UniProtKB/TrEMBL annotation:
Native species: Sporosarcina psychrophila
GO cellular component: a single term: cytoplasm
Cofactor dependence: Zn(2+)
Protein name: Endoribonuclease YbeY
Residues reported to bind Zn(2+): 122, 126, 132
Enzyme Commission number: 3.1.-.-
GO molecular function, one term: metalloendopeptidase activity
Compartment(s): Cytoplasm
Cofactor annotation comment: Binds 1 zinc ion.
Coiled-coil region: none
Biological process according to GO: rRNA processing
Entries under HAMAP family matching the protein: Endoribonucl_YbeY
Broad enzyme group: hydrolase
Length: 156
């Protein structure tokens, strides 16, 4: 089971959206064959705040739609985290810009909830190791996103 902790720094996200994301990410976890207890945090931010995070951690001083920080992903010099028995695996953090999500929903011609769900799933798949740095990886990740969204019933 996937436990999701929400923080809304914008006060624009209601319980219906949180429930939809909770169901979607648990559906994705099942589709990905994940087992055991896991945790993820989802933070809803403004463009200004996500731009600051983007500049600090990615060297890109612009707002973006979603950023993920995988706890299990090692960088040079880090030591692997070994979870204690009986403790949930913390997958990481997903940060979503509500302002960018609203703009993108309008631009793409679909519902705000669909865009927020898409971004949450996109961030979640990054936590699981998916990426889109190469064309091959992009095809795999975006194909998986589309498949999971369709099975969940959250299509464009």
């Amino acid at each position: 089971m996937l436990e999701i902790y929400f923080e809304d720094e914008t006060t624009k996200i209601d319980k219906k959206i949180e429930d939809m994301i909770r169901k979607l990410l648990n559906h994705a976890a099942t589709e990905e064959g994940l087992t055991g207890e896991m945790e993820v945090s989802v933070t809803f931010m403004t463009d200004t705040d996500i731009q600051e995070v983007n500049a600090t951690y990615r060297g890109k001083n612009v707002p973006t739609d979603v950023i993920s920080f995988a706890l299990e992903e090692l960088t040079e010099g880090e030591v692997a985290i070994v979870p204690e028995e009986g403790m949930p695996t913390v997958l990481g953090d997903i940060l979503i810009s509500v302002e960018t999500a609203a703009r993108q929903a309008e631009e793409y011609g679909h519902d705000f909830n669909r865009e927020i769900g898409f971004l949450a799933l996109h961030g979640f798949l990054h936590l699981l190791g998916y990426d889109h740095m190469t064309e091959e990886d992009e095809v795999e990740m975006f194909g998986r996103q589309k498949e999971i969204l369709a099975l969940f019933g959250l299509e464009r």
